[in-house]
Amino acid sequence: MPVARQLSMIPSSVLSNWASDADADFGEVFTKRWVVNFILDLVGYTSEKDLFALTIVEPSCGSGAFLVPIVERLIASCEIHGHSVAEAATAVSAFDLLEANVALSRKSAIVQLVESGVDHEAAEALARSWVHIGDFLLTEHDPACADFVVGNPPYIRLEGVPNGLTDAYRKACSTMRGRSDIYVGFFEVGLDLLKPGGSLAFICADRWMHNQYGASLREFVTSRYAVDAIITMHDVAAFESDVSAYPAITVFRNDTQGAVCVVDASGDFGEPDTTPVSAWIAGDDRWTPASKTFQACRLESWHQGPELWPAGSPAQLALLSDLERRFAPLENKATGTRIGIGVATGCDEVYITRRKDLVEEDRLLPLLRAGDLAGGTPAWSGHYLINPWRGRELVDLNVHPRLGRYFEAHSVRLRSRHTARKQPDRWYRTIDAIDPTLLARPKLVLPDMKNFAHPVLDRGEFYPHHNLYYVISDTWDLEVLGGILLSDVANLFVGAYCVKMRGGCYRFQAQYIRQIRVPEPDEVSAENARALAGAFRRRDRKAATIAAADLYGIEAEAVGLQFA
Fold it and tell me: CA-to-CA distance for 64 and 59, rounded, in angstroms?
């Protein structure tokens, strides 16, 4: 059942001023014709089908990239099935915020209708009934009104939207959380419009599948709809302009979840490839799920709730699905294994020093930074963290006069921070509280951004800085665990879930490290343990991968990553 939306009354001047702002970025990225045809085929909007009594919605029509082929197919369908297209007033519903775009789309529709034999006046009336000026997210739609929803929603971060609209969008769309992009709302509202069995297909940036702001949308989708297909097209020239959008086509259906078709398209993927892919997704097994330009597979299940969605080749995703079924997550209360992040101070210039005489000695902690790990073992650079904490409380500056004088000398800078303005009486706190027990605890530390996992063992000498993530455990031999984390098996997990940076650099953040699955420590044989620990000490990623693959019961080559 569609969600009842809370639509705020936005003064028309807010929308009109934004729409008429020559400098405003409306996130318009126009889709190539062959990609549009591919999307229409994927949802089954084909002229062979009787489209007259069905409704297709296009939430952000622009100048007509989707609308033109939609109208072409509708006209052809009406001719095949004996309907008058002039009477298909409810067959299409398209929206755009910009009046100029609406005018262009209506004009294109009129030209097609007149060429098909509809008189000009009727064509104009039909185009007006099809294409609407308005904000799709803030329009009151009839519930369950669409058989198809298709399009390329705009890419606009919420901070790029006028303040009044931002609040209205968040109120109307429960999935727009955190530093969201407004395309998240287009997914939510579009899905809510689907009739039972109806399908939605968007080509859109896939970042919401892999980051925090997409958590509510992932939960929304998997709790109520079926994920039919995900076609990753990062290197495909899918748009009329060259944009860094990391696009994927997602096909969702208002139905119960079944098998999921996963396709990974290479940069050479083009129009000739769309026929076999759409036919295979539709269940026609005469078509092969592999070629030089794409790889594909069917997964029998899909992730539920707000969990991150993986990306990668279909073979890798199938392997991940198997490993996730057979092994427990790395972070595990049963093994006492926990993942955390180093300290964020909010003002490194004040809290980090090399001077041992600056404050009381018991207020200094040896600080480990990312640059100290390059060689594979800690090579401390001599930096200290100035610690204002004792347990969960801040120390009394009167008891530590040197620390007090030092902080007072920098009080203007410290008091101007957001965390200090929120708690003026705690103005000298670091953003994160400091747990002094972490200093002496053996831990694996991993730098945030690397092309491959780079775990380093700190035997209990240092406190990690904020761009380092750490793993501690009550039961694991950390050198053995370090060998697993060094391997391409661990890279496979992180690479599938993380938001990749330019150049293929991975983000080894806690939320992605937590996706790694591992055997129980007591399931590791003595032979495997020696091999993994030895590979870790030698920094031998190939040997670590071979040993880890044996531990997981898979072929090392199946991981699909290249050995350095």
Answer: 11
